[in-house]
Amino acid sequence: MSAAPQGVPAWWRTFRPAPGAPVRLACLPHAGGSASFYHPLARAFAPEVEVLAAQYPGRQDRYREPLITSLTELARRCFDALRPSIDRPLILFGHSMGALLAYEIALLMQDDGLPPPVHLVVSGRRAPSRYRNDQFHRLPPAGLLAQIQALSGTDASVLSDPETLRLILPAVRGDYRAVETYRHQPGRVVHAPFTVLTGTDDPMVTREEASAWERHTDGPAAFRSMPGGHFFVTDHFTEIAALLRTIAADGAGTQ
């Protein structure tokens, strides 16, 4: 993967480089999340699969950079940075906000004349065509913090530290704004199979909202529900890693 210019943080992190891997897995974090969320996958998959993880502006080593509060613009910037690495079969995996970004990046690949991803794995997110009138990005700090706590995706000790909150709340708010103001382009589909993952007790996604993902592909769509809330993925790492490994093995065979 091409390195960022000196002094410029990279959009995509490769925690375990695997230049000989026949397939790449590009992972997109949730709202407020960072590339490090996918470090365990990189460790588990190298050298058979090279895992790339997106690092959005406004967090960790990119916290001084302006947030991007348009989901389509964020997808475009992620795609532009990813494009040099689309030189072998690519799987896109996104959780929550990352699922929408994966979908938009897949469409950008098609628009650019590239082969579509060999598989799209979307997790913890209702289909692009299913909207709610969520306004979490407009909440005062205490309300936004309560929303984060309700989803149980961030360590409680982190949320109790005022300095850490000062750093992470703007990124969460900006990402929520990107998601809540996003509207998909009707009629567009991705030419790739989908796997849709949901948590049985996820307050952000109903079964019906998740099933609507099948309208956004002209390929097969598989659905898998697992016990847990919005961050069920952290409790089912082994199961999800096994699923991704199978998808990667199939993807490698498309070369």
Provide the fold topology.
Layout (H helix, E strand, L loop, with lengths): L11 E2 L10 E5 L10 H7 L4 E5 L16 H12 L7 E6 L1 H15 L7 E5 L17 H11 L4 H4 L2 H19 L13 E6 L7 H5 L9 E6 L5 H4 L1 H16 L3
Parallel strand pairs: 2-3, 2-4, 4-5, 5-6, 6-7
Antiparallel strand pairs: 1-3
Helix pairs in contact: 2-3
Would you give an account of this structure?
The chain has 255 residues and is of the alpha/beta class. It has one domain: Alpha/Beta hydrolase fold, catalytic domain (Rossmann fold). It is built from nine helices and seven strands. Strand 4 (90-95), helix 3 (97-111) and strand 5 form a beta-alpha-beta unit. The radius of gyration is 17 Å and the shape is globular. The model is unreliable at 1-6 (pLDDT under 50).
Short description:
It comes from Pilimelia columellifera subsp. columellifera. By secondary structure, this protein is an alpha/beta fold. The chain is built from nine helices and seven strands, in the order ββαβαβαβαααβαβαα.
